[in-house]
Every structure is written in structure tokens, then in C-alpha cells.
Amino acid sequence: MAKSENIVWHESVITKQQRQEQKGHKSMVIWFTGLSGSGKSTVSVELEKELYNRNIHSYRLDGDNVRHGLNKNLGFSPEDRAENIRRIGEVAKLMVDAGQVTLTAFISPYQEDRDQVRDLMDDGEFIEVYVKCSVDECEKRDPKGLYKKARAGEIKGFTGIDAPYEAPEKPEITIETDQQSLEDSVQVIIDYLTDKGYI
Is residue 173 part of a domain? Predict the structure, then answer.
């Protein structure tokens, strides 16, 4: 809820559709969700590179990067996690309006939070990508050493260890990074975007 009642939305003269036509592709948010270490950032970086090579305007919002600036005042309580995702959803909505393909890589463990972001977008503008990977494999990878700290009790409320992760109920795309190569994972997403006429 807005804290001020004295605000009015100011429409642009240029529409989202005009921006999409100028760029030559549709705009949408590709929302990567999965456990820490599942490969969200890795796949989103590689996808961004592939889109760039195809002259598709995209920008990647990554969980840790956003917490360095926009969301640096948030922790990891359920309430802060919800606010983190809400803010990212609002930023992603603006970027979609600007005609961008927006890639987001966030654990985003709660279905309700992801659904709220989906509800911000027009139909077809939210593509949920479930980066499926077993906890065991994520823990083996442990690129940031977070699972080790969580197991040692140094991190409380760690998703997949002592905090829940709610797998997507109906994601548009599922990639299994403990079964598929990075190249294959990216190709699955490119094929989806092509088949559905996004790019």
C-alpha cells in the first residue's frame, strides 16, 4: 500500500508495443527459481550471452547483485524475502514496459511471492523457469560455501536446509541442471522463446 495518496501515474506517449516493435522482439521476464547452487545465475548469464548474440535486448537481475544496492536493507526473514521479491517484481515490470527481456535469478522460495510477480505482468510476460537440482547436488557444488555454513549453524533460515523451498506448481520451463549440460539448459529456453514467438 502506498504511503502517499497524492500520487498519480503519468502515462508515456510511447507504448510498450512500440518499444517492442523498435527492438524487433517481445519483452518479458524470465524468472529463474531454484535452490542456492542449482545453477540459476550460471544459466541466466549464458542465456543473456546467447540473447545478446542474437541482437535481443536483455538485462539480468541477480539475487546477490540486487542485495548490494536496491535491497541492501533487507535480510532473509520470510517478510524480508517477500519484500525482496516484490521489489524485484516491480523493477522487472518497468523493464518489460521498456521493451527488455529481463532475466531474474533469485531463489524466490515461496510460490505465493512468485505468483504475485506473475500477477504484475500482462498475460504471457512472465516465464517461470524452475532450475531443478537435488539438494545433495547443490550441496556438493556449494559455490559460495553457504551449505557448509548452514550445516555448521552459522547461517539460520537457509533455504533447503532449515527453511522451505516451494517448487513451482506449473512452471513454463523446467531445466534439470544435475541432468542437463549448461548448453542444453540454455537451448531448452531458447527453443521455448522461439516456438512461442517471443524472439
Answer: yes
CB atoms closer than 10 angstroms to residue 158: 18
Residue 145 lies in a domain: no
**E strands of the chain, at which residues?**
28-33, 58-62, 101-105, 126-132, 173-176
Q: Where residue 171 sits, what CATH number does that domain have?
A: 3.40.50.300
Total domains in the chain come to 1
**What does pTM read for this prediction?**
0.90
User: Over the stretch 112-147, which tens digit does the pLDDT of each residue have?
Assistant: 999 999 999 999 999 999 999 999 999 999 888 888
**What interhelical angle do 16-23 and 78-97 show, nearest 10?**
70
Residue 17 lies in a domain: no
- CA torsion sign for 135, 36, 114, 186 is negative
Whether 9 maps to a domain, the answer reads no
pLDDT in tens, 84-119: 899 999 999 999 999 999 999 999 999 999 999 999
Give me the active site residues, please: 108
